[in-house]
Amino acid sequence: MTGKRFGIGAALAAGTLAAGMALAPGAAAVVPQTATIVADCGLYGGGEATLTATQDGTSATVTVSSSEITAPLALSEDSIASTLTLAKASGGTTAFTGTENPAMATGDGVTVGPLTGTVAAGDSLEAFGGSLKMVIFGITVTCTAEGPQSPGPFVYE
């Protein structure tokens, strides 16, 4: 009888532990999840921007937002075609693309994304050395980072 109780108790303990692990929040797959840059958009201005990254396996997204880089005109939702190119530490680049953006009034801070791309385990991606190209009403606006992103590159699991 004691053996059966021990077996049931062990099964309950294991089940409780497994349920607790299933409900625990997962670890972030990309580190850091947010980074900042100072961007230069040429004739269209520039300023500080925040990049927010996520990862689900080999699929990743990056959203770019700035209160200092502003919309030159009122823009409707999902009207900006964007390509964010990030430099790989190992050489080459990775592109994140999309047409997602919220509606923006003239002078509002610009947000584009989430822009989607494909990553591999161990990829270390940095905005410095890459660019953000936004096509707005047929006009291409290109922004580049003036220096490395802070606190550092996005590293994917």
Short description:
The chain has one helix at residues 2-23; strands spanning 30-31, 34-40, 46-56, 59-70, 81-88, 93-98, 109-118, 124-136, 139-145, 154-156. The protein is globular. Strands 1, 2, 3, 4, 5, 6, 7, 8, 9 and 10 form a ten-stranded antiparallel sheet that branches.
What do you see in this structure?
It is a single chain. By secondary structure, the protein is mostly beta strands. The protein has one domain (30-156). The chain has one helix and ten strands. Strands 1, 2, 3, 4, 5, 6, 7, 8, 9 and 10 form a ten-stranded antiparallel beta sheet that branches. It is globular and about 40 Å long.
C-alpha Rg, in Å?
A: 21 Å
SS elements, strand count: 10
Q: What class would the helix/strand composition place it in?
A: mainly beta
Main sheet characteristics: 10 strands, antiparallel
Cα-to-Cα separation, first versus last residue: 48 Å
Helix count equals 1
Low-pLDDT runs of 5+ residues are: 1-27
H and E string? HEEEEEEEEEE
Domain unit count: 1
| Chain-averaged pLDDT | 86
Strand-residue proportion: over 45%
Q: What's the shape?
A: globular
- Percent of residues in helices comes to 10-25%
